[in-house]
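Trying the structure run again after the queue cleared.
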Amino acid sequence: MMAEKDPQLSAASAAPTNIEAPSADNAAASTEPTAAPRRWLRLGIFWSVPLIVIGILAYLWLTSGGSVSTDNAYVQQDKVSISAEVGGRIVEVAVHENQRVNAGDLLFRIDPEPYRIALAAANADIAAAEARLTTMEVTAGSMRSDIATAQAALRFAEANLARERALMDRGFNTRARMDAAELRVVEARGQMESARMAAVRAEAQMATGASAPGVNPALLAARVRRDQALLNLSRTEVRAPVAGIISQSDRLQVGQMAVTGLPAVSIVRSSQSWVEANFKETDLEHMRVGQRASVSIDAFGEGRLWGRVGSIGAGTGSEFSVLPPQNATGNWVKVTQRVPVRIYLDAPPPRPLIAGLSAEVRVYFRDAPR
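Done. Tokens:
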């Protein structure tokens, strides 16, 4: 009622009702700039995931068959077992475990006294052989003198027989004197023959064989015994044949008896190392000697070493085992065999290798990555 009476109040109260609400087109226009980037982002994420998967699968497909790998691989080094060549009691040990030695270094010494005695006995045998040889030479000279004496006696007996025969022809001799003269000739011939045989025996004792001309066999045998005694004496000092690191030296103890041929200590030749990788037989189809290979040593972390295939084993590991498998049985089960492949490194590693370290090897049939 009051509004109707007051025109200004009616106009003021009715003014808000004339304001228009925003239309739907205006609302859509205001939200369109923010919705478009979000839509493209969702589309990018939606298509990027399958594209990445496809790219990975394509890479694996392209690179599959270009290499093979195995983690059944170990570092190998030459190991030289040292044994005594003569028996005896160990009197000195000059090395200890993990010591680095050079070729020719003393490892241990065996009691040399028994071998010095053997050397002295061999020298005595040489002296005795030389004395016997001198005696035989004197005997041979005496035999030659006996031959000359026997020849003179024979000539005299033959001349006497000729005189007795001449007297017998003129009738001034007896038959008994003739028989005695003939007997003396026979005796002289026998003595000369005996002297010749004795001289031959003396010469034969001093003779030399075709295998050692100019040396008496008895004297040669004595010298050989002396050389053997000298060799045995030198072998009482056991020295390193190669350079490397001493291993298994616990068997070397002063006072222990060294047995001929029984290993007493080992030397690991750390300067020559390679990796023995045992690949499955199904991985060898495209493997060839000279192909490039990468080696990852477990003890070295993530670093890689490079090398090449040096050789492929002539037999599987089971073929050379102590007890090879016998597959001619009714319960036979096929097992994939492993073949040892030797990998030679191109350059020395940054750290010294240790025999037996585990490694992972990959052999590339085509160009290896750099």
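The mean pLDDT is 82. Worth checking whether this holds up in the mutant runs.
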